[in-house]
Amino acid sequence: MLQITRPALRPESLSFLDRRAGGTGLLIDGAWVAATGGATLATLDPATGMELGRIADASEADVDAAVEAARRALPRWKATTPAERARLLWRIADLMEARIDDLAELETLDQGKPLFVGRWAEIPGAIAQFRFFAGQAMAIEGQVIDSSINYQPEGKQVRSWTLREPVGVVAAIVPWNSPLVLTAMKLAPALAAGCTLVLKPAEDTSLTALLLGEIMMEAGLPAGVLNIVTGLGSRTGACLAQHPKVAKIAFTGSTQTGRAIMDSAKQDFKRITLELGGKSPAIVMPDADLDLAVPGVANAIFFNAGQVCIAGSRLYVHRSIYDRVIEGVVGYGQGLAMGHGLDATTQMGPLVSARHAERVAGFVAGARRDGASVLSGGDLLGDAATFMAPTVVTDVRPDMEIVREEVFGPVVVAQPFDDVDEVIAAANDSQYGLASSVWTSSLSTAHRMSSAIEAGTVWINCHAMYDASLPIGGIKRSGWGRDSGRQALDSYLEWKTICAVL
Ligand code: NAD
After folding, report:
1. Is any ligand 1 atom within 6 A of the Cβ of residue 310?
2. Contact 224, 98 (CB under 8 A)
3. Residue 494, SS3?
4. Nearest residue CA, atom 39 of ligand 1?
5. Residue 366's pLDDT is what?
6. Which are the contacts of 122, defined by CB distance < 8 A and separation ≥ 6?
7. C-alpha span between 360 and 357 (Å, rounded)
8. With a 6 A CB cut-off, is 253 part of the ligand 1 pocket?
9. Which of 26, 35, 273, 395 is the most exposed place for a label (fewest CB within 10 A)?
10. Exposure string (b/e) for 199-219, b if CB count within 10 Å is 16 or more?
């Protein structure tokens, strides 16, 4: 029986909840306001199921006010110098760093992840986004083009060049699994490019976005440059995505919602970037260093309770070492301490909500019905039935739902293979193409497989290493475009061509 108790909150978190979790958490044109008619939604602690407070439930009118504010702020923000934008982004990063413990505690409270994950990985990752794009703001450049136009008037010259300009108002829509860092991945490049924004956090995890909003106001971001609307995806999110004055939708979430975003974008030909789902292979070759590979592939799926888009959820192991690796992964999972994320001993927290936990458990039940073996985990635990122990599924066929669909929980599907061509074909036999990892001590195998695998990222002897400088995103049904890196900045900029007779 898993007993969950929540440790006491820091005074900073209690004061934040007092301030923002009473339903006055829309940031519109620099002011914190309630939704029209005072509508609110409950936000829960996923570990206990207890209500933490209420977030504003933004209506169509609230979304419209937020987009109009972003639109009004655009000319002024666009006209700031790169150095002004860089200074502000850097200041935001400094203030986040000063509040890192507040951000980490709130993220755990709202999302469930162990405190150390937020404190040492995700919040620093969010801060790094602002610092990286502060630098990128200073490196935006067009080109002078030596064209071949040959009909210039007598005595005149033709000169042609390009400018980079912000795309305009951006709708940033983010999911609940790593709320703050995924938010930072949209906000930092958009602001660096000179865009203004309306942010829609996930309804289950809006709290750190609201604290970030406070921090950005404190840093001196002009009113209207960042607006935040909280509420349901089906209403607030849909209104935002469809708003005719939104020029670009920067979306992270499920492949299914990604399709709805494409529909919303098509009327006005909005620019879109889509960071969607995955079913990423982790491949252990016979020459792998197993001291590195076993904890590596286990962590690739059990980190953040598997609620990671790039999780290594399909494990392929060479038959010669299959039993050893599977035994190691099961043992690693069984050794992870589950509990409330704020408990310092916790290594794995709950799933984000009872609804999501039921969905994850449904996939495992389906696998059992299809004839797979569940070597560990698979059942829901805890008072709120939101915990699932690390789960290892074997004896599967490639056509089973558990092999093909994204589960988004601590559930790995393991399969043996005999040769490299077979495992490349199996890895690529997926609707997704987000990420992958290959564990090998052979340089030539590493090169060969990293070319052959159909994915946006291939890690060698590691999994889920990321940095603000490295583009991340997928192919196939894992999405369009990239977050992070120079490529992300480009996606918030348009090209303008100037051709002049001088
Ligand atoms: P989701 O698609 O249900 O929701 C994501 C966001 O979209 C939320 O803010 C939600 O409120 C909003 N939304 C829902 N319906 C909408 C609509 N019709 N119009 C506009 N907005 C709408 O996804 P989720 O369940 O919150 O997140 C999990 C998914 O996110 C997984 O599939 C995961 O793989 C994916 N993800 C991808 C990446 C990546 O970088 N590729 C990163 C993290 C998560």
Report:
1. no
2. no
3. strand
4. 275
5. 98
6. 107, 113, 178, 180, 181
7. 5
8. yes
9. 395
10. bbbbbbbbbbbbbbbbbbbeb
Q: Give the predicted TM-score (pTM) of the model.
A: 0.97
CB neighbour list of residue 299: distance below 8 Å, 6 or more residues apart: 332, 463, 464
Give residue 80 CA to ligand 1 midpoint distance, Å. Answer: 32
Sequence-ordered alpha helix ranges (H) in 159-276: 179-193, 207-219, 238-242, 255-266
**Which pLDDT belongs to residue 441?**
98
**∠273-275-278 over CA atoms, to 5°?**
150
What are the residues facing 144 on neighbouring strands? 161
Q: Sign of dihedral through CA atoms 215, 201, 124, 137?
A: negative
Q: Using DSSP, state whether 450 is helix, strand or coil.
A: helix
Q: Check residue 262 and give its pLDDT.
A: 98
pLDDT of residue 213: 98
- Residue keyed to tokens 């985990």: 377
Q: How far is the CA of 252 from the centre of ligand 1 (A)?
A: 5
pLDDT at 453: 98
Q: Give yes or no for a contact between 258 and 502, defined as CB atoms under 8 angstroms apart.
A: no
Mean pLDDT by 10 residues, the chain (502 residues): 88 95 92 96 96 96 98 98 98 98 98 97 98 98 94 89 98 98 98 98 98 98 98 98 98 98 97 98 98 98 98 98 98 97 97 98 98 97 96 98 98 98 98 98 98 98 97 98 98 98 93
Let me know: does 279 contact 430? Beta carbons within 8 Å. yes
Do 154 and 117 contact (CB within 8 A), yes or no? Answer: no
Instruction: Give the pair of three-digit tokens for residue 170.
Output: 């951006």
Question: Do residues 211 and 99 make contact, with C-beta atoms less than 8 angstroms apart?
Answer: yes
Q: In what order do the strands lie in the sheet with 271-275?
A: 31-33, 26-28, 226-228, 196-200, 169-173, 248-252, 271-275, 479-480
Cα–Cα distance, 499 to 146 (Å, whole number) = 11
pLDDT value for 3: 83
Query: Alpha-carbon distance 80 to 309, whole Å?
Result: 35
pLDDT at residue 102, rounded to an integer: 98
Cα-to-centroid distance, 254 and ligand 1 (Å): 4
476 lines ligand 1 (CB under 6 A): no
Paired tokens of 172: 């940033």
Estimate to the nearest angstrom the gap between the alpha carbon of 282 and the chain centroid. Answer: 20
